[in-house]
Amino acid sequence: MSKVKIAVVQPKSYLRYAAGRVLDDPTAPEEQNLALAFDYIEEATGNGAQLVSFPELYPGPSPGSDALDYDAVVGGMRRKANEQGVYVLFGGAKQEAQGFYNLYHLADPHKDSLFTYEKIVPAMNEETMFRGNEPGLVDTDLMNIGLLICWEAWFPELARILAMRGADIVFFPTGGLIYELHDVWRAILQARAAENTIYTASAVNIWGVEAGMSYVFSPEGEVAGLTSEGISYAEIDLDRLHRMRSEDEEFTVPKVYRTIPGTLRVLDDKLPTLYQQTTKAYLDNREA
Predict the structure, then answer these.
(1) Are 75 and 30 in contact (CB under 8 A)?
(2) Cβ pair 205, 176 in contact under 8 A
(3) CB neighbourhood size of 181 (10 A)
(4) How many helices (H) and strands (E) does the chain have?
């Protein structure tokens, strides 16, 4: 398949318990998120989307909330994906003993199994989060899909690992309350796309306190953007992406691409070795 149409949903979202208690509202109708998610999926599929993605912890449940049952959400989203014949990416927290997992799922309409990514790097408000071990990577009939969550975009090693393992696109579903970081967020998403020759995609929850930040980037620039509630559509050109990966930079006028192709092709033993040595020295000094 040379081109894939994706839908990045930036939803109206209800939240009972928020990071840092900025938005805590025990009366918020968080249970409505699931029905709203179904509506977004139907709208996106009706507009030709082959994959639909939601932000971090959407439709839920959010950490510490009993408004939604985790298993019921997973079951409902899987059924909706099968009913609509579309891939669906969605998030939620799963409580375990004294902590929780921040999870992001891929429901494949062609399989009974569900792929689940466990967030690796806790944010400042996730002290009780259990950490995952590996970046998420799923080989689907559409393309190879990489999964990270929110500020894990700030750690370029994670996206690079996914690119080296063959990801065509990396999703960075994000919670919210980060609009002051808007310009930097855009730059980081673009950088991860350009340096790794991948697509990147992200959206936030619309909780009513800030504008949205939904973007899709190719290695060559912005493909789609949305700062309000709604659905952003983007076409993923896999043929062009794979050509960029397989070709080397040349001195030509005009340039063939609006980026430098073949960035991963120049890697050799020296660069990974240098990085490993520097990382070890930094960690040793930090713990000293």
Answers:
(1) no
(2) yes
(3) 15
(4) 6, 12
- Alpha-carbon dihedral 128, 118, 148, 87, rounded to 10 degrees: -140
CB of 206 closer than 8 Å to CB of 12: yes
Rounded Cα–Cα distance for residues 119 and 168 (Å): 20
Taking the C-alpha atoms of residue 135 and residue 27, their distance in angstroms, rounded to an integer, is 35
* SS3 annotation, 213-226: CEEEEECCEEEEEE
Tokens 């980026």 belong to which residue?
A: 259
pTM of model > 0.90: yes
Q: Which domains does the chain carry?
A: 3-287 (3.60.110.10)
Q: Which is higher by pLDDT, 192 or 66?
A: 192
Mean per-residue pLDDT over the chain, rounded: 95
**What pLDDT is stored for residue 44 in this prediction?**
98
Type of residue numbered 150: C
User: What pLDDT, on the 0 to 100 scale, is given for residue 101?
Assistant: 96
Cα–Cα distance, 288 to 286 (Å, whole number): 6
SS3 78: helix
Q: What DSSP character marks residue 105?
A: E
Tell me how far apart the alpha carbons of residues 123 and 177 are, in angstroms, rounded to a whole number.
13
Q: How far apart are CA 288 and CA 282, in angstroms?
A: 10
Residue 113: what pLDDT? 82
How far is Cα 60 from Cα 17, in angstroms, rounded to an integer?
11
DSSP string, 227-273: -SSEEEEEEEEHHHHHHHHHSPP---SS-SSSS---GGGG--SHHHH
- Interatomic CA distance for residues 117 and 152, integer angstroms: 13
Q: Is 126 helix (H, G, I), strand (E, B) or coil?
A: coil
**pLDDT for 240-253, tens place per residue?**
999 999 999 999 99
